[in-house]
Amino acid sequence: MAADASPLRPEEFSSAVAAITSAFGDPTRRQIYLHARERADGVTASEVAERFGLHANVARHHLDKLAAGGYLEVRTARASGGAGRPSKRYAPGEEPTVIDVPVRRDDLVLTLLARTLELLPRELAEHMAEQVGIEYGRAMAASLEPSGDGHRSFRSALHAVADALTAHGFAAHTEGRGDDMSIVSDSCPFAGSVASPVICAVDRGMVKGMLATLYGETAPETAASRAQGDDACITAVPVSL
């Protein structure tokens, strides 16, 4: 919708925002945007993290994505008294938001990818998919803020991986399961469009790649998969002593 058109009714605005953030691939970002839109002075990453129960880095990731797309603008202001580091606030712009609903092509691309992988021997397809995930996972980990002393502890690295996956739409958290720690993803960006277990190798590869960068080499295993009918995707990682 063009910026000079009549204002959207609340239900139209909600539908348009849902379409836009569906393209982003994360419903949490929709709620963050609507929350920020209601506050003329904007919000900070720490405020959003507290409001939605997120890690501050994940909240900042969502806000930066919204700012990069032009949905929020970034403002800086010093705390009262002028001391300390300027706070970074994300606020709706003075100009009306231009609602431009893109055509979703994600499902088609993923479906074609899954069908292409099915033409390969299962073992080869999984190996290729995992390698792609590892490379992407390493790139994701490299973009995270450093821990301050290089590699993190095993558990700290797992939590960082879960936060990064959540920022990409997986709604992930860590759990202790027997002698293993696991990353449990209650939501999967691939669910509903791709039901190929081979795609799970991408998830496993992402975890392996991120942990290799943040902690060291590990051997993640797929313990459960929504693509195979389970309630959640679970990647088990043996505890490193």
Structure, explained:
The chain is α+β, with helices and mostly antiparallel strands. The protein is 46% helix and 13% strand. The chain folds into two domains: 10-91, Orthogonal Bundle (Arc Repressor Mutant, subunit A), CATH 1.10.10; 106-238, Muramoyl-pentapeptide Carboxypeptidase, domain 2 (2-Layer Sandwich), CATH 3.30.1380.20. Strands 3-4-6-5 form a four-stranded antiparallel beta sheet, with helices on one face. It has a two-stranded antiparallel ribbon with strand order 1-2.
In short:
Helices cover 46% and strands 13% of the residues.
Q: Within the largest sheet, what's the order of strands?
A: 3-4-6-5
First-residue to last-residue Cα separation:
56 Å
Helix percent band:
40-55%
Protein structure class: alpha+beta
Please tag this protein with its features.
Muramoyl-pentapeptide Carboxypeptidase, domain 2, two-stranded antiparallel ribbon, alpha+beta, 241 residues, globular, 8 helices, 2 domains, Arc Repressor Mutant, subunit A, single chain, 46% helix, 4-stranded antiparallel beta sheet, disordered N terminus
Walk me through the topology.
Elements: H1 10-24, H2 27-37, H3 45-52, H4 56-68, E1 73-77, E2 87-91, H5 106-118, H6 122-142, H7 154-167, E3 172-177, E4 180-185, H8 200-214, E5 221-224, E6 233-238
Antiparallel strand pairs: 1-2, 3-4, 4-6, 5-6
